[in-house]
Each structure stands twice: as structure tokens, then as C-alpha cells.
Amino acid sequence: MKTLQELTRPNIWKFKPYSCARDEFKGEASVYLDANENPNNSPYNRYPDPRQSALKEKIVQIKHARATQLFLGVGSDEPIDLLYRAFCEPRLDNVVAIAPTYGMYGVCADVNDVEYRQVPLNAEFQFSAAELLARCDEHTKLIWLCSPNNPTGNNMQAEEIERILAGFDGITVIDEAYIDFSTQPSWLKKLDEYPNLVVLQTFSKAWGSAAIRLGMAFASEAIIDILNKIKYPYNISLPTQQQAIKMLENAPQVQLWIREILKERTFMQNELRKNKHFLHLYPSDANFILCKVTNANRIYAYLVSEGIIVRNRNSVTLCENCLRISIGKHEENLALLQALEKYA
Ligand SMILES: *Cc1c(COP(=O)(O)O)cnc(C)c1O
User: Fold this and answer.
1) Mean pLDDT, range 99-121, rounded to an integer
2) Shortest CA distance to 332 belongs to which of 274, 257, 253, 268?
3) CA of 236 to the centre of ligand 1 (A)
4) Among 163, 272, 284, 286, which residue has the least CB neighbours within 10 Å?
5) Which of 78, 102, 216 should be mutated for ligand 1, with most atoms under 8 A from CB?
């Protein structure tokens, strides 16, 4: 593995972050005249905690990590973008990713003018570590893995992930947006073993909180320090921090939702299999099912006309004539099945 200094862009390694009022004073006081806030309209008049300490404490209790290993971002989108900005020199460095996978890795590569190297998955939607590593050179800073993967829905093989972690000299990112629906354990427990591992998780899926925009990046303290240094000082709003704490206090409810969604997933797999326009259902460890159908564009348009929106993945490599269907509430799933029955 390269050292973190070798991997980090020189400007990022040496710069001094903005120091906000709430960084300089972290204790409790009765009169706050330090941040040019309006004294009225409590609690929204005050800048939120830039370190999100209370929220992080709650998260790491559940995730069995340390608060110093956790970065909180405006969705996973923010750490995805910051990883490029911290480690990839525009027009010089590159990243390697599996394909198909989540679109934001490629979008953020384009925005940051960083070369995005895609390695196609095989027919089982698995990758070969040797193939990914063969695409790396001295300018490869990041490898993007996603498990369970979007849009395919399956877990990546743990042995191949481990080979990347052991064999790549840059930073390996494993996006676990769907980990709560998966039979596989999280890679979080390997954080101490692999100092260049970044695990992404989110409040947007199992936690039912896409609207509050809260994503988590877990990594070594050294990597987390860099992300904290370059983020916007008050990136996570007070309502988001408060609502996330409320959700964490309600974790048993979230577990019930997950159980219900997994039950519905099995129900939908059994029902969709009976439809002659559904040629193949790919195995899912997520809260959606990728389905090979007779004519994805036509079925997609028909469902739109019925007021039902699924995701048409027809134009994605290896997903020709595929629809990605999220698992909804039972009555929503029934509405989809009923509409499909009428489709000729
Ligand atoms: C939905 C999803 C996310 C979540 O992104 P947020 O910005 O946290 O809402 C992240 N990664 C993958 C692969 C996803 O499918």
C-alpha cells in the first residue's frame, strides 16, 4: 500500500481548513456572540454542530466503530465527491470501477475531470480481482466496489473483494448502501485490518430517510481527518442531525421494516416469475429486483401509462431489456402485479 501522503493530492495534504466559530469554542456557554447569528428563532438561528458529535456517538454504538472512523456527508453523494477531490489529481489520476454499478461514481469522476476505468462484470454479475488490478497503474487512486451492487442487486464475492483489499496500493471503496438487506456481513469489521478501506453506508434506504440526505463514510482516522478537513463546515443541517438521532432511537422499527421488505421481496420474486414477459429474475440481496423482460422499453412505457414507475435499465451495459423494480408496500407491489397481468 502507498502511504496516505502519497495518495493524497499535495494541495489537500498541506492546506489549512477554514476554522469556524464553533470549531474554536466547543464547550457549553449561556451567551453566544461569536458567530453573527440572529438571537431570535431558536433553535434554527444557531449553526449546527460542525462535527455532529451527538449523532456520531449514536451511530457508532450501532455500527461498532469509533467516532473518529466516521465521516457524515450530505448523502453518500458527498463522500463520493470528496474522495475524488481529496485523492485524484484532475487529468492525471484515474479510478477503476466495476460495470454496471451506481452512476454517481462515474458522474463525480467527470465533474472532477478524473479518468473513470470500467471493468465489466461477468454473466453472474461478479468481478475478477485480477482483472480489476490489471487495469490499475501508478495513477490509480481509487477502486469503486458496490455490494450489494446497484443495479444488479447481488453481493460481490467476498474472496474477490478481499483480494482487492490485499492487492491494491490505493484506496478501496465499498459502497454498502443496501447492506441491511443483505445476507453478507458488512466490511466495517475489517476497518482496523485495512487502513485504506472506505465503507459507505446511507440513511436513504433501509433507514427510510432519503429526504434528510445523510450518508456515512467509515475509514481509518487518517482518511476521515482528510474528508473532515475539506467538507463544508456545516454540511449536515440541524433538522437532519435531529431526525437521524430520532431514527437511531427507533432502530427496532427499522429492523421491522427490513423484515417486511425482505418478505415482500420473496413474494414479488415468486409472483413476477409467473409472468411470461419476465424471462429472468436476477438474485437480489437488496430492496429491489433486476428483471430481464421481453421488451423493457415497451413494458416501462405501459407501466408509466398505468401510473407506476419502475427503473428502465435497458440502456445500461449487461442490462439490456432489464427493469429494476424497488420493493414497495404490499399494496403498491400488488398494484404493479395487477397492471402487469393486464399487459399483453
Ligand atoms: C441509493 C444509493 C446510495 C445512496 O445515496 P445517498 O446520496 O446516500 O442517498 C448510495 N450508493 C448506492 C449504490 C445507491 O444505490
Assistant:
1) 98
2) 268
3) 17
4) 163
5) 102
